[in-house]
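TEACHING EXERCISE
Course module: macromolecular assemblies
Task: Read the component lines below, then compare them to the predicted structure of the full complex.
Student: A.B.
Group: 4
Components provided:
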Amino acid sequence: MRPVLIAGGGLAGHACALRLIEAGFEVELFELRPFFGGRACSYRLPGYGGSEIDNGQHVLLACCTALLDFYRRLGVEHWIRFHDSYYFLEPGGRLSELRPRKWAGPAALMAGFLALPIFDFRDKWAIVRGLAAVRRQAGDHRLDALSMEQWLERHAQPPRAVERFWRLILLSAANEELDRLSAYHGVRLIWLAFYGAPGAYRLGIPQVPLGSFFAEALWNRYGRLRRHVGQPVDKVLINGGRFHGFEVDRRVVEGSAGVLAVPYHRLAGLVPQLEADFSEWSCSPITNVHLWFDRPVTELPFAALLGRTIQWFFAERGGSYLKVVISASRQWRTWNREQIIQHTLEELKEYLPAVGSTTVAQAHVVKELCATFSPMPNLEARRPGPVTAIPGLFLGGDWTATGWVATMEGAVRSGYQAAEAVIRWLRADRGG
Ligand SMILES: Cc1cc2nc3c(=O)[nH]c(=O)nc-3n(C[C@H](O)[C@H](O)[C@H](O)COP(=O)(O)OP(=O)(O)OC[C@H]3O[C@@H](n4cnc5c(N)ncnc54)[C@H](O)[C@@H]3O)c2cc1C
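Instructor-supplied answer key:
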């Protein structure tokens, strides 16, 4: 049988490939860029002492079961370090630690939040009411017609509870502002962290550069898989109304089935016959500022930063290398590198006074303008599943219908879904 062809060497393409080779199929995967990983990648920075940096800090929660399954199958789950506590810093440097209260069972995270000094009694009471509504409403698709901002207004959440609780969690989880985030997703994300499986809220941080998850040494073990970098698929070839193959570098590559695991805005160029309409879709950016100091500026592994534009930092090298994250960073789109670094340092000093008296040895800014699709109200029903109108052609990618916002978890789920659809189709097509 001819191989199954995959376009796109991000997490979705790799998850799809893994499932297919485990089921006994030959797979050939084509990636446009000179390296794998897509939006979760890393690369060496020339002139920075050879440092390999991620295109952006990536984290996961313990409720990301498909992603963790993918890591387990690859044998790399130990590359993720999980943290039980969360740290919050206010301007001025006051530190609060959120320690989920395990004695509270399913309410462990809520009990931890309510013990934080960053909320007053009115905020806490409003959050408890809000969380009760989350529990009742999670999974209700009618919420997709509302923005999360509207939902919070309906549930009478005071400004500080919105800013320090709902926005803090959701901006990082969905990479979108509350007025552009569907309440279906907002409510579901909070439900997953607060009412999902025990310990679902635990924060996982990769301990290796993201490129390691796509390394030759890991993937060359699979004899049934051939991977190519720097080889974009130019066109999907259709013959007699069915998938025939890919055109790659003016060459025809025939396949038994094809999976497009590329970003949504690439689809129309590859296969106009699908007439996919993405006119209502848009992207949300993420900016990461990498700062190397000449000595440690913090002992914390990471912290959420309250009340300014920068939102989180993640520390490495004993606190002398910080990655500062700004999600949904639309207001920074037009700023140049110097403006971004200057602004970041000004704000960072308010939380970590040591930053003011320490030299920045190096700094680097990564602006990902289309980091994720915006999970806006009324979009959910338009996300396509893995099966297309063209027999033998399938879709993957974090933007397909996985029920998740654009995340590594969503990407892996989409890859698994696409692989299962391919397997079903090939078995049916060949009479079982
Ligand atoms: C800065 C940043 C921070 C993020 N932080 C987090 C986080 O903390 N936690 C989290 O869960 N998620 C995070 N995400 C989101 C996560 O990275 C994505 O949801 C996920 O990686 C998407 O994977 P994918 O395979 O669906 O798409 P992609 O990674 O975009 O992969 C698609 C691939 O297709 C390739 N391609 C495009 N056209 C062609 C073609 N014609 N032929 C062949 N190949 C082609 C692209 O080059 C790309 O490699 C973040 C994203 C960014 C950018």
